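Can anyone check this?
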Amino acid sequence: MARLASTESCWPGQMLANMPRMIEIRPGLVLPEENLTERFVRSSGPGGQNVNKLSTAVELRFDMRACENLNEQVKIRLARLAGRRLTLEGVIVIFADQFRTQERNRADARERLAELVRQALIAPKTRRATRPTLGSKKRRLEGKSKRGEVKKLRSGKPDHD
């Protein structure tokens, strides 16, 4: 889970006020508040009158191109991982409406963004070319010659005695 910048305990009504200003991805790497935009909209799904009266769903937007804390390679991997959640302007949009409260949806959206960035931080291993072993070459050639024999037997003309 994303670490909270403030460690104060709070009751649900206070949670938005105490919500961290930055998202800590790992020690020493944070996503600054300037690159994050949150919008609260009406949610669908369960909740009864609560759904119709309150804006509990969260649309979290992260401006990846403007973020100076991520290098270009991480931004490229992040764009690939984000897929269709990435806009043409380089903004990642995460929509969270799983929970009935705004606080939990906000925390969920921030955690999902943090997990996406954590995945992008992992550099893929480069493939090193290897040569086939002598045994594998022999097995392949034996298989090919056996298959050729089977085909040769099929192509013979049938005997009509």
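Reply from J.R.: I decoded it. The helical segments are 15-18, 49-53, 72-82, 102-121, 134-155.
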